Every structure is written in C-alpha cells, then in structure tokens.
C-alpha cells in the first residue's frame, strides 16, 4: 500500500494522508473538539506575573490556530481553540526568559476518548544580569591519542605544541580503535589541572520549558575533582551512565587557587550544555573528534553564567559554532 502511495504526487499524497487520519479518528471527523486551557504564570519565587503574553497553539487535522491572551492581576489567562493534539503553550514578558508547556487535553475513559479543559502553571525566569561570555559550540580533532592534551576554553584551542592555547583548563585523553563501522570502541577521559578545580552535574536542575536551561549562577560547592570518562562502542557494551547524553549539563570550576590553609581564594566558572561528546574518527582523518557547547566567564570569582547572546566574547564565529541559548 505504501509503495503505491509513494508514486502519488505531493499534493495528492497530502490529501490521501488527510483522508486516512480523518476517517481513522472516531466520532469527530474533520471537526476537532474545542478545548480551553487556563494558564497561571508565576516567577521563580511562585509570585504571580501580571501582563505576561500567553499564546496557545491548537492543532486540528487540516489546520491549526492560535489564541493570545494576557495575564490579569492574578497572573491568569485563558486560551481556547479546536485541537485533537496536545496544546502548545508559550508565556513571555519583557524582562523574563520565554517559557512553554505542552498540555494534553485528551483522556481515555472506558475505551472512549474525551477532551477536557485543562489548567497549567508556567514559570518565567527573570533576566537578571546577562553578561558577555566566551561561548562556543566547539568541535575539533583530538591532536594525539593515548596522551593527555590540555584545552584552553578562553582560546578555544589546544595548548602548545598542539594549538594556540596558553592554559590547560581541562585535559583530555583519548584511547580507542575504529577498524570498521561494526568494530569500533573508544574512551575519552577528562581531568583538571588544579586540585580545587572540578565538575558539577546539574542535569537535575535543568528547566527544559525555559529558554534559560540552568540556574543563573554557578554553585559555590559540590564540585568533584576526580577524573571523568565517557565511552562509545558499536557493540553497545558501555554502561549507560558513561555514554555521552544530550540530557547531561555541567558547571565547571577552573583555574582555582588556594591560600596557605588550602581554602579556595580564586576560581573561574563555566557551564557545558548537552554533555561532552566524542567521535571515533573525524573527516580529516585524525584519531578522534570531541565536541561540547560551553560558556566560560573570564572574570575570577564571578559565578554569573547568564549569557548575553548579543555580546559573545568570541568574535565573528562561523554560524555552526555560535550558541543561541543564554
């Protein structure tokens, strides 16, 4: 059947698929049920936000519609439309980062579909103090295998003699092989140059609904100085917790120094989005490739990691190296 459908033109294919969807949806046909969503908008401290714009996107079978409203003095707004599918909700206000939610209005009771009005709370994070940072989507070759190589976040390059970097903010070591597509395995390790440097996994603090994924500032404590490692294998025999994951986010404490009693005196902070990834082989034929999206604050002891996306300290980055999240 699908082979026959594939021979149809794009326009006819669209109408055939629409026909299948409509007549496989019992009771409603082309007429999507009308549903309403009451949206409560609050800030990070659960205070109601007045005057926020709320946009609801409603999807029928053949079309979609949007409904806009503004929150009242109680931070509440209502939107409505016709939709078979989950309703997309976005809230925004000047001085805050946009945030959204997806609201499922359908429920099944005794085998029957019902569409209900819903209520949802959306949290807006305040724009506190966005600042310029060294922010980059880095991707490059690891210069050598089976050796520790330093990487300078401020220069976005390997330290000499492998690049133009001066300070080894982190050090990487790759070991592995790639005999064929099905016979490949690798391990990437990372360590720090100072005993007070470290990494903190903040994946549990990620707010996927907000444009600002992680907290505004780097935490003071909780960093681990131990060696980190990630593994890849085409045979799949790497433990899940060591595989690179887009759900992982970190804060790094770097360039740390201590007083004579061993107490922290000075440090720089950075954040890494979506884990540190690596690849068996690069297009240029090097031993392996590494990639990570990072934001580095060059001011010692400034824990602010709220990035001003219009003021990157890296100038004239190529399009594919630019980051667009605060």
Number of helices: 2
Q: pLDDT below 50 for ≥5 consecutive residues: which ranges? A: 1-8, 25-29
How much strand content do the residues show? 35-45%
Q: Kindly provide the radius of gyration, computed on alpha-carbon positions and rounded to a whole number of angstroms.
A: 25 Å
Number of domains: 2
Q: What is the terminal separation in angstroms?
A: 47 Å
Dominant shape: globular
Structural class: mainly beta
What's the number of extended β-strand segments? 21
Largest sheet: 6 strands, mixed
The average pLDDT is 89
- Helicity level, as a percent range? under 10%
Q: Give the topology string: H per helix, E per strand.
A: HHEEEEEEEEEEEEEEEEEEEEE
Strand order of the largest sheet: 16-18-19-20-11-21
